[in-house]
Amino acid sequence: MFSRVSQLARHLSRPLPSYGSTSLVQRPRTTTFSYGLMASSSAVTADERNFRTIHTAACLIIGDEVLGGKAASTNSNYFAKFCFSLGINLKRIEVIEDDEDEIIEAVRRMSNRYDFVVTSGGIGPTHDDITYQSIAKAFDLPLVLHAKAFELMKKISKPRPGEKPFNWDEESPTLRAKLRMVELPTDSSRDMEKQFLFPCEDLWVPVAVVNGNVHILPGVPRLFERLLDGLKPAITPRLGDPEGKGTVRVLISTPMSESAVAPFLTELAERVGPKGVKVGSYPRWGKNRNTVTLVGKDKEFLESIVPEVVEQVKGRVVTVEGEDDDLVEAVEAEIDTKIDEKKSN
């Protein structure tokens, strides 16, 4: 079986003259690229990145359709919530086009600066899906046909209604397109199980982990979310908070304007900042109440300062922003009614 797969890979894979051919047998890495300092020459090795504690994260959204307004970047929002729930400090979210140089620059920079990096998009079968090949170039790696992913693809993929069963043994443009999705950046010097994860048993899509901390995920939201959630068991033991309690956010609804609460919040931020607490204020246009937030990992300390904040901003704690709008409007309507009644009398 492996010989047949290897033959397919050698015969069908698109030419990759600049960074190696796609086959089950990896060729020596002889090509260098002029995109700046190579990550392999960094003081931190890929294996070290693969095991170090996760404190910070970054998300790279790749796709012309997002920048063109055709699709919303829902994956970045889901990733932000994922990090928040685990207590990971999400430091950066970027959206870039399907451009090789842009991908190479961004992924190298993020890999060097952050502990946990996720990319979203650009790993499909079409010509503009260039994430795998770009990240391979970024870290001077060849693209190699992943046999397990290819076998799972054949096993799990089903023809759509009205389509004939696909012939996996016949050379065709469609087969070459499918192979693009299982030709992955591969470092032959490292443990393969650390480089390729299969978080969901019913999906053939792997999560390629490049340079120890760059996790390549699809852009389809349903797949992105399932695979990201599936990574949780692998990354939880490496969290700065080993119990994975995550970050705590307290929402306080206030009738005061931002300018009115600004002096107190400025003083509060300076006072509680050393305790790891971030203080925020967010206007709600068209509403009668704004929101003050307290965010941190020390739940006990956060709860200890809530009464003071509630008193100073004349507010109340809410679980969801805007949940008290109806109540406030009802009270105000009742007050207006009583005032009108007094005037009429």
From TrEMBL:
Ranges in a coiled coil: none
Domain MoaB/Mog: 58-238
Transmembrane residue ranges: none
Gene Ontology biological process terms, A to Z: flavin-containing compound metabolic process
GO molecular function: FAD diphosphatase activity
SUPFAM superfamilies assigned: Molybdenum cofactor biosynthesis proteins
InterPro entries noted in UniProt: FLAD1_M, MoaB/Mog-like_dom_sf, MoaB/Mog_dom
Top-level taxon: Eukaryota
Pfam family, one: MoCF_biosynth
Designated name of the protein: MoaB/Mog domain-containing protein
The species this protein was found in: Apodospora peruviana
